[in-house]
Recover the amino acids of this structure.
């Protein structure tokens, strides 16, 4: 028997402003704010229900956005980490091979600064090891999003 794939679905309790994660077998305790797109705003929203085997595979999957940084101290730490990632990437560019991981990590660090990516301990440690020692420490000091 085929079940609905894991993903973010409208909350089955009826709260249209929330999404809840379906892990493929059961509802988890993870919630996110619903972010309606322009197409959904023009169409009426059906009542949320538990995913069933009858649902098509084309059901949209929603991913929660990282919340913006709450205070200026964290924002400053994240900006300094991003600048140090850029400086480290430019300083090591003559080696070419490290650019394979330094450039994507610097782009991700920018996403953390802007609030579109989550600041996690794992990414802070990887930044510390692979990109910038001080930048990684700054990310580890700033507030974690998860």
């Amino acid at each position: 028997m085929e079940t609905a794939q894991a993903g973010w679905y409208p909350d089955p309790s009826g709260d249209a402003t929330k999404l809840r994660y379906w892990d493929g077998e059961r509802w988890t305790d993870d919630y996110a704010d619903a972010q309606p797109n322009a197409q959904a705003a023009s169409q009426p929203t059906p009542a949320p229900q538990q995913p069933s085997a009858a649902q098509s595979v084309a059901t949209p999957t929603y991913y929660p956005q990282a919340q913006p940084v709450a205070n200026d101290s964290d924002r400053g730490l994240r900006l300094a980490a991003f600048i140090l990632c850029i400086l480290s990437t430019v300083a090591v560019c003559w080696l070419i091979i490290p650019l394979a991981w330094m450039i994507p990590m610097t782009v991700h660090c920018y996403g953390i600064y802007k609030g579109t990516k989550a600041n996690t301990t794992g990414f802070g440690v990887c930044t510390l090891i692979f990109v910038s020692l001080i930048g990684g420490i700054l990310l580890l000091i700033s507030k974690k999003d998860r």
